[in-house]
Amino acid sequence: MEDSVVEKLEQRITQLEERIEALQEQMPKDQLSMVVFSGDLDRVLAAFIIATGAAAMYERVVVFVTFWGSTAMRDPNKRVPKAELTAKMFDRMLPRGPKQLPLSHMDMFGMGRAMMQAVMKKKGVLTLEQLMQQAADFGVEIVLCEMSMDVMGISRDEIRDYPNITVAGVAKFLQEAGQSSVTLFI
Questions:
Q1: What DSSP character marks residue 74?
Q2: Tens digits of per-residue pLDDT, 119-144?
Q3: Which residues form a coiled coil (predicted)?
Q4: What is the spatial distance between Cα 51 and Cα 28, in angstroms, rounded to a whole number?
Q5: Does the pTM of the predicted model rise above 0.85?
Q6: CA-to-CA distance for 55 and 133, rounded, in angstroms?
């Protein structure tokens, strides 16, 4: 009789261990995921400030850059000829990298941006390019939205050099966000 009790206990322990393992696999990871939808200087600055701060707190930081935010990742020194008319139009109308991003408010044809950048320099605040470099140094991963790039005519050849960058679809972001303990949208 004692053998059957021991066997039942062993079976129950095995079942509980399997349940615990399944729950552990479903638990959020020590990770922050962020969507950067905006292409406004102040919002992209905020995203990279948060990303670099989060890199000190979380094991992993993943930033999904989509639509207008994609323009921040363009390298102003990389020019790629465009075949389609809409791609040519987007190429001329969209900002080419961090220095050309407008402010969300009071941009005033770039004067507001210049004022903001001057105040930031005076106060010793890192530029967006410096924050991007710091994020790269801290291991922040960037996922560029492939569909947004296609729609806006942005090619992989004109993206700035960044060590932890990939081009992927929304499924990749959903996978990352689904396992993150924190998810933000900017």
A1: B
A2: 999 999 999 999 999 999 999 999 99
A3: 6-33
A4: 18
A5: no
A6: 13
